[in-house]
Amino acid sequence: MILRGTRLAAAALATAAFAPRLAAAGTLAEAEDGVSAAERRLSDVERLGRAPEETPGARALRKFEVGEAQYLLEDWMHAAVLLSDAVD
Q: What is the DSSP letter of 73?
């Protein structure tokens, strides 16, 4: 379900990005080329946007590192949440 929402958001973003070019296209062939390029970019975003599954140890280490950075920035609330998540 989340991936479908991500696809819709990426499609909307690609449409918005290429809309001025497509509106200015003089011929149908140029518009089709623009749509094909947008579809290729969208498939690249979908392929590269997927993060590999994180192991629990890697997730805890990441949360600890981010929590430590928040602590050093004196953002106590976020640091506490992240560090307690790392311990859990």
A: T
Are 6 and 49 spatial neighbours (Cβ–Cβ below 8 Å)? Answer: yes
Whether 65 shows a pLDDT value over 80: the answer reads: yes
Give me the numbers of helices (H) and strands (E) for the chain, helices first please: 4, 0
Predicted model pTM? 0.42
Coil vs helix vs strand at 55: coil
Q: Residues 86, 67: contact at Cβ < 8 Å?
A: yes
Tell which residue, 51, 87, 50, has the closest CA to residue 68.
Answer: 87
1 vs 79: CA distance, rounded Å: 30
Could you tell me if 79 and 70 are in contact, meaning their C-beta atoms sit under 8 angstroms apart? yes
**Residue among 52, 2, 55, 3 nearest 63 (CA):** 55
